[in-house]
């Protein structure tokens, strides 16, 4: 909680933030997918629906490359990385 309080104090020096909505910030474990890999790619059986979730603690860090990968897949450009390990079908038995 010390880190959260220091970050909030610094943010309030920079931005005109309103009062906190919740009296106590949430802290706890974050869920993650098996293998610590997000689901990125088309939703099987749902034309036009794309997934990009499950980044666990790395969503802000990996968001930009996920955006690039999804956009390359949608536009059928050569993907910047192999999307196969991130496909939702990896969970099918």
UniProtKB/TrEMBL annotation:
InterPro entries: FAD-dep_OxRdtase, FAD/NAD-bd_sf. The keyword Oxidoreductase applies. The keyword Lipoprotein does not apply. GO terms for cellular component: cytoplasm. Residues 4-73 form the FAD dependent oxidoreductase domain. Pfam families: DAO. Keywords: Oxidoreductase. GO terms for molecular function: oxidoreductase activity. This is D-amino-acid dehydrogenase.
């Amino acid at each position: 909680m010390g880190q959260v309080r220091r970050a909030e104090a610094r943010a309030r020096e920079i931005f005109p933030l309103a009062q906190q909505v919740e009296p106590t910030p949430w802290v706890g474990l974050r869920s993650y997918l098996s293998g610590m890999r997000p689901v990125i790619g088309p939703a099987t059986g749902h034309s036009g629906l794309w997934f990009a979730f499950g980044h666990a603690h790395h969503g802000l860090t990996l968001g930009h490359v996920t955006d690039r990968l999804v956009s390359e897949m949608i536009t059928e450009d050569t993907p910047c990385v192999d999307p196969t390990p991130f496909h939702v079908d990896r969970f099918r038995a």
